[in-house]
Amino acid sequence: MAIEKQGVFTMSTTPFKRNGDIDYPAFRRHLQYQAAADIGVYLLSFGSGEGHQVDHSEMLKIYEFGAKTLKGTVPVYAAGQGLGPSTRDFIKLAKEIAQTGVDAIQLHSPRPAYPGASAKPAEVERYYIDVLEAVRHPFVLSVHQGAVPGVEPPPALLRRLVDTYPHLIGFNVAHPNLSYIHRVIQAMDNKAGVRIGGSAQALDCLALGGHGFLIYETNLFPKFCASIFADWKAGKANRAGEKWEKLQRLFFILNKHRNPQSIKAAMDSLGLPGGFVRRPYLELDQAARDEIAGVIRASGLAEAEGLTKKSAAKSSKR
After folding, report:
1. Cβ contacts of 294 within 8 Å, gap of 6 or more
2. Which end of the chain is less congested by CB atoms within 10 angstroms, N or C?
3. pLDDT tens-digit profile of 199-233?
4. Contact, 71 vs 111, CB < 8 A?
5. 229, 196 contact by CB (below 8 A)
6. What digits encode the pLDDT tens for the residues 269-312?
7. Contact 253, 230 (CB under 8 A)
8. Can you say whether the dihedral through the CA atoms of 136, 142, 148, 151 is positive or negative?
9. ω into 153 cis (within 30 of 0)
10. Where exactly are the structural domains of the chain?
């Protein structure tokens, strides 16, 4: 399967109403806002997507809703899967997800039973093989040191999996060691896409020959984020770097006030349909919201995105 032309993927937010119900009209507007920038969409990530906050039936409905809303426009992937259940349970779940119409399923390695533990390399390898043998739907495999510390599949193994299972179409890597990321990119040799998870290493990934990045700032400024990738591919590295610096200032303030609360407060300040966070999360206080809005105003990102003052003055919660 060819590497997706989209270099940038968004970890989409999930809009909730004040009472905690999913706000599907707001969700549709948000997904269309993302797709208009021609970026791929991950639904129900465990950060900005609050994927750990929905039950089984809600999860399947959201995947189906997203797939139908964006069908034929941009790739729609099911995020945050494979972290908890047994192999047998996850295979059953993956088969259900495949029926929702999503283009691919994100596959994490199994999460250890308790903090500080790590899965044995042979167990991780067997898990990947069992899942890929049983479910013939496209997968994107994630190596995420934040979600599953200590799991570092050898790049040679990842390449063998790609060669053996053509429905393994790509990799997302969130790893502090650029050497490991580089070895994964080299091992793939353009046989499958390799994208970085998070904006901090976005340009590093591209410089090493990677194929893009998976980030959450796209919920706010999808066209601007996509333009960083476009500039880099066009040979305009300096321009891409200048834009990336602006994006990092945004990342720092969002990270300070924690995702998903911060991203939804930022969306609200811009009049975008972010909705509410679902309990036990709490909305940010006014001081935090003002600080986030101030950084956005100073950055000029809203103007670069083409958001009007009128839209930025609106609020979905006030």
Report:
1. none
2. C
3. 999 999 999 999 999 999 999 999 999 999 999 99
4. no
5. no
6. 999 999 999 999 999 999 999 999 999 999 999 999 999 754 54
7. no
8. positive
9. no
10. 8-236
- Amino acid in position 174: A
More confident residue, 108 or 237: 237
CA 207 to the chain's CA centroid: 20
Bridge partners, 9 (sequence order): 40, 214
Token pair recorded at residue 224: 């601007």
Alpha helices per DSSP H over the chain: 24-35, 56-70, 87-98, 121-134, 155-164, 178-188, 202-207, 222-233, 237-256, 261-269, 286-299, 301-305, 309-313
Looking at this protein, which amino acid is placed at residue 88? R
Burial of 24 (0-12, 13-18, 19+ CB in 10 A): middle
How is residue 81 annotated by DSSP?
E
Closest CA to 307 of 247, 248, 222: 222
Per this entry, what is the length of the chain? 318
Both tokens assigned to 49: 């997507």
Amino acid letter, residue 58: E
110: closest CA among 133, 128, 132?
Answer: 128
Lookup result for tokens 């899967």: 81
DSSP structure class, residue 306 = T
Close Cβ partners of 186 (under 8 Å, ≥ 6 residues apart) = 155, 209
Q: Where does residue 150 rank: exposed (0-12), middle (13-18), buried (19+ CB within 10 A)?
A: exposed
